[in-house]
Amino acid sequence: MNPAPLSGLYAPSLSLLTDLYQVTMAYGYWQQGLQDREAVFHLYFRRPPFQGGYAVAAGLAYVADFLESLAFSEDDLTYLAGLKGAKGTPLFPQEFLEYLRTLEFSCDVDAMPEGTVAFANEPLIRVQGPLLQAQLIETALLTLVNFQTLIATKAARIREAAGSDTVLEFGLRRAQGPDGGLSASRAAYLGGVDATSNVLAGQRFGIPVKGTHAHSWVMAFEDEETAFAAYAKAFPDDSVFLVDTYDTLEGVRKAIKVARAMREQGHELGGIRLDSGDLAYLSREARELLNEAGFPDVRIVASNDLEENLITSLKLQGAIIDTWGIGTQLVTAYNQPALGGVYKLAALRKPDDSGWDFTIKLSEQLAKTSIPGILQVRRYETDKGQPRADMLYNTATPPPTAPLVIVDPLDATRRRTVRPETPYRELLEPVFRRGRLLQPLPPLAESRARAHREVLALDPSIRRFLNPHTYPVGLEATLYDYRNHLILEKRGLGAE
């Protein structure tokens, strides 16, 4: 069977955007008559990325698009029909493929809105519905949410380091392929960057696009001054000159010379860009040259493998930089290229429809032991809207109305009592009901504003890069006790 051409990679049907074992499990459920048994899954991560104190939820818009169009096309079914088992026989019988042909997504989906600040073990998404369907979408949801949440969080950290400076995303050429580039640009904007160099992302998502020119522009001309003058002629009101092709400070002087000529014609140079060398020293020297020449408003743009820690260091060194161009380190999440998001079964409807069987995945590491129940995340806040603590509770057994106790799932001695009158909000909001999108998701700009607002609301000790304070997240006490009971029961250590 010939592979599909690259142009068909992003065809309307993405139902095969999954791991094979999701389809084999779906067949197994169907064969056992379990396909319609109601199930609940949670998508969450076990620790925040970058050794940080939080994450910024992202990717839900992609999830909604994926679920709305979930259907197996004739090409999908033909491909699955051609898969063979170890003995050369079809891996899937025709009857199962006919079932997939008529499959319609009918799950309920609740999720944290994009831009919400999230912490370890908190469901970003809860899926409730037929077991086969809820299982089948696992891989797609993880790949859509994991990457964008990772990049949005990285962007929020870079925004923290840059403060009020302009931050541009320049990473397409180093991204992990076309979709990696598009997803990264979108998530980076959501997380806090101001613009992107990615023109397709600008078109698709409405992100402002910005750019300068490359070293090749300068090298294509007889000398730097000629190159700068030619660029100024093409873009008299939108020029930023890359000054480090040969000698950086000499390049600044030539940029100033061209800027004077531009001013005589009624135009102003927008900025210069530094892409190599000692950025702290060069930016200070460049600023002095520009100021002495009468160009205090010309911006200094810096690039070259920048990220939040280096930006912080450069500021401490006295760098005078107005705009930060961030590429590889952002779009590849260079120092942690994957978010450890997981998708775990947490509840199954009893066969007699009398209630729920809550499920748990055990591990020798308590951090990898899952949380049973149909979970909701309640965020307690101050009167000014600042987060105080998050509580996970089982909606099938609502928490008591008396003062609530939140227990750290990894340390029973870490407990917090919350008075009933404490303001709170529920973080998982309805997105799909019976497979139908309830309403259009917020525009990207609104999600970006949410991310900015929620990150700033965190205490600075949680936002800091080195050894951040752990934000309190715990289980409602009765859920904590039930989880321990279930652990002992599954290990054969329960009361006789």
Topology of this protein?
Elements: H1 20-31, E1 38-45, E2 55-56, H2 60-68, H3 74-81, H4 94-101, E3 108-111, E4 117-118, E5 125-130, H5 131-136, H6 138-162, E6 166-169, H7 177-191, E7 195-196, H8 199-205, H9 215-219, H10 224-234, E8 240-242, H11 248-264, E9 271-274, H12 279-292, E10 299-302, H13 308-316, E11 323-326, H14 328-331, E12 341-349, E13 356-358, E14 375-381, E15 387-394, E16 404-408, E17 411-418, E18 424-426, E19 429-433, E20 436-437, H15 444-457, H16 460-463, E21 473-476, H17 477-490
Parallel strand pairs: 6-7, 6-11, 8-9, 9-10, 10-11, 15-21
Antiparallel strand pairs: 1-5, 1-12, 2-4, 3-5, 3-19, 12-13, 14-15, 14-18, 16-17, 16-21, 19-20
**How many individual β-strands?**
21
Q: What does the average pLDDT come to?
A: 94
Main sheet: which strands, in order across?
13-12-1-5-3-19-20
Strand content: 15-25%
Largest sheet: 7 strands, antiparallel
Helix content: 25-40%
Oligomeric assembly: single chain
Structural class based on helices, strands and sheet pairing: alpha/beta
Q: How far from one another are the termini?
A: 58 Å
Number of alpha- plus pi-helical segments: 17
Uncertain stretches:
1-9
* Shape, per Cα inertia axes: globular
Round the Cα radius of gyration to an integer and report it: 27 Å
